[in-house]
Input
Amino acid sequence: METIPEVVERISQKIEAKGVTVDREKVRSKLTLLVEEFGIQIEEAERTVTNELLREHNLFTPPSSGQEERAISDVTPGDWVTVEGKIVSLAEPPSSAIAQSGIIADSSGAVQFVVWAKAKAPTLKERTWYRLEAAVVDEYRGAPNLKVHSGTKVTELPEDRPLMPSVVPIASLKPGVGSIRAKFIEEWEPRHDRMLQTGLLGDESGRIKFVLWKDGEREKLEPNGVYTFYYATVDEFNGRLSLNLGTAMYIPEDGDIRVSTGGETIQGAFVHMGPGSGLIKRCPVEGCNRVLSRQNYCPVHEIQSSFRYDLRIKGVIDNGKKARNVLMQCETVTQLAGMTLEQAIEIAENNPLGLDDVLIQLQHHVMGKYLRCAGSDIDGTFLVKECGRVQCDASLHASLINRAAASQGDDAA
Output
C-alpha cells in the first residue's frame, strides 16, 4: 500500500508542474484527515485533495456535458465523456468501495476504469463491448482513469468489433495502458508476499521494471523468453515507469531481441562490499526466490531443507564526486572476478570458512579496483550488465582520498 508521504509528493509535483508552489505540510494534513480520521481509501483521498488544490488555485477545468462520443485515446482528466469500448481485462477491486476495475479499449487505445459500488451499475463482462455515457475522467498516477458512477448509463452492445492493440517500443511508453514486445532479461527477489514475479523486461529501445502479482491464474515468465504483452498497466512514480502485468495478456513468441544496454556508464573505485554479497541461498518455493539466512530460514516460508545457490555482489562505486549503489548478478560477477557459480559452490563446500571464503576471494578481486560499468539505474541502485577494470586515474584517486579524510574528520567532530 502506498504511504502518505509518497502521495503528498505526487500531488505536490502535479500542482507545481502548473506553476504553483505547494505547501506540502498542508497537503499531508488534508490527506491524513481523510485517510485516518474518515477512513477514505488513499486513491480517493488523493483525487479529492488534488481537485481541491486545482480549484483553490483556479486551475480546475469544468467538466463537459459528456454527451458527445469520444475515442478512448482522446479522454483527458476533468472531462465527462461517452465512450464505446471492449472490456479487455478485469482486475481484483482494491477496496470494498469499488465494484469492478479493469481496462476498456477501442481501436484508438485503452484506459483503466473503475466502477464505484454505489453506482449500482450492471456487472461488466470481459470480452464484451459497452457504451458508457457520462462517465467521469480523473487522473491516477499520471494517467487518465475512467470512473463509472451513479449518473453513468451503461449499455451492453451486441456486436463484437475487431480490435488489435498497437504494440510500441518500451521507450515510447507513457503512464496509462500499453502493449509491448519484450524479452525477460532479469529476475529479482520478490519484496512482497503477493508478488509472483518481478524483474526487468527489455527491447531494442530500453528496459523497464515489471511486477506480476498472484491474482488469479497467472503463469510465471520464463527467463530469457520473448513475449508480447497486451494491455499492461504503465505506472509512474518519481519520474520512473514500471509495468503492472496484472491486467495484461501475454503470449510467448519465437525469436530473440537484441536488448538495449540502458545507455548509461559509470566509472570509479569499488569502495564497499555490502551485506548479501557472495554466494547466497535462495528459497526454492515457487514464486518466492527470497534470500535465505545462514540457517536456511526464509522470512515467508520459514526453514527450508533445500535451496538453490546464487552469486552476486552488492556494493558502492565512488568516482570522487558521487557514490553509486551497484548490484551485480551472477553473470557479471563471473565476468569481473573470474569466479563461476560452480567454482563458488566448490569453494564453499570444501574450505573451512565456507561461504566466507567465497566473499573474501571476491573482495580480493574487486575492492579498491577502478571499474567501468554499463547498465541502468532502477530505484537508486545501478544494475550492472557489463563491467571491467580500467587504469587508475591519479586525479580520481586524490579526490577519493580527500573524501575519505573529510568523512573521518566529520566522524571525529
Observations:
- The helical segments are 4-16, 24-37, 42-56, 330-337, 341-350, 355-366, 394-412.
